[in-house]
Amino acid sequence: MLGPLATISEPAVEPIELGSAKRFLRVDGTAQDDDIRMLIGAARRDLEQTTGQRLIEQTVRIRAFRFSDLAVLPVGPVMAIVDITYLDGAERKSVDLETVYLTGAGLERGIDLVPGYSWPAHTRGPIVVDLKVGYGPTGASVPENLRWAMFALMRGKFDDRAVDIEGLVVNDRIYG
Description:
Blueprint: E1 6-9, H1 18-25, H2 33-51, E2 58-64, E3 78-88, E4 91-94, E5 100-105, E6 108-113, E7 127-133, H3 144-158, H4 166-169
Antiparallel strand pairs: 1-2, 2-7, 3-4, 3-7, 5-6
Helix pairs in contact: 2-3
C-alpha cells in the first residue's frame, strides 16, 4: 500500500505564461496579474490532481509499506528515480540505484529490480521513494491537450463557472 504523495520541490515555472493566459482570458492591463497567476497555479494543481500527472519537472515523495508496492506508481511521467530509502533496524539506508530500474512506458511506470538482485529486508517503517517527475522543465514540453485543459479550467474559474475536464483528459489519467 502506498501512502499519500508529497511534493518535495515545486516546479520552477508554470506550463502557461502570464501573457498567454491574459490573451486567452481577454484581459488587458496589469491590475489582475496576481489573480491570473493564482488561476494558472490553481488550474495546474487541479489538472495534476485529476490526472495523476505532474506537468512541469518537480520532485515528489512516495511512502510504501512493501517494496512490491512500487510495481505501479501513482504519478507520472517519471523522469528518474532520485532515491529509495528504508529502515534497517534503527537506521535509514538507501537502496543502490544501480540495482533498480523503471518499468513500463508512458504513464504506466513502476520500479523493479535488475535481474539477479533482491530487495533488502527491512524491519519496520515506510520505504521512502523520491522521484523526478514531469514532462520537462518548461511549458513547451507539456502536451497540447493538457495545456488546453488548463486553459479551460482557467476560463471556468475566471468566469466563476464549473468546468468538466474529464472529457479533455480521459486518455491522460493514471488509474491506480
